[in-house]
Amino acid sequence: MNNINKFTKYFLVFLNLVFALNINLAKADNLDKFNELKNNFNICNKEFDTGIKSCDEKWSTKCYNVLTNVNKNTQKCYINVAKELFLLYYNQDNIKTQKMFDEIRSFTYNKYLFIYQENNYCQKNNCGISPYLHSEYATTYAIKNYIDKTFLAIENHLR
User: Fold this and answer.
1) Following CA atoms 61, 49, 99, 105 in sequence, which dihedral angle do they give, to the nearest 10 degrees?
2) Interacting residues of 20 by C-beta distance below 8 A, sequence separation 6+
3) Are 24 and 30 in contact (CB under 8 A)?
4) pLDDT value of residue 107
């Protein structure tokens, strides 16, 4: 009976070591993927900065299409990184995650459009296309901030 207890104790210690090793390996794998996604996110940031600099007259109608496309492409880039984060760390499926980010993007854009377009000044003076561009910028930064906070939350759990 004593030999069985010793065997059980050693076996449990062995299982704990294997379990601890698997957790560390899983964290290392996740950390590698985490760093890869963070790098992809930084690439999105650089592409945004480069795109914004491509047009000198930032608030002109001449640059409106360029800057709108830069913002929309950056939003897509951010959302693609976020989808991978949510698939890996939150066990969400691709369709559900895409739908969630489409809703976040649409809601954010519409709320900022209200802020920039429906104010008293624009109601009296016709602000033209600037509220749309301001809303795209605000939406891009809102998505960026959301993903930054997601990275921070995951990073706290991985380290």
Assistant:
1) -50
2) none
3) no
4) 94
Which residues in 13-31 are b (16+ Cβ under 10 Å) and which e? eeeeeeeeeeeeeeeeeee
- CB neighbour list of residue 140: distance below 8 Å, 6 or more residues apart: 48, 71, 74, 75, 78
Distance of alpha carbon 62 from alpha carbon 120, whole angstroms: 26
Range of lowest pLDDT (8-17, 29-38, 54-63, 121-130): 8-17
| H helical segments located in 54-129 | 61-89, 94-117, 120-125
Whether residue 93 has pLDDT greater than 90: no
In which residue are the tokens 């605000």 written? 138
Report how far apart, in Å, the C-alpha atoms of 102 and of each of 7, 72, 95, 98, 138 are: 56, 12, 10, 6, 15
Cα 159 to Cα 49, 96, 121, 155, distances in angstroms:
30, 28, 49, 6
Q: Which pLDDT does position 31 carry in this prediction?
A: 81
CA nearest neighbour of 82 among 97, 95, 60 = 97
**Boundaries of every domain in the chain:** 34-158
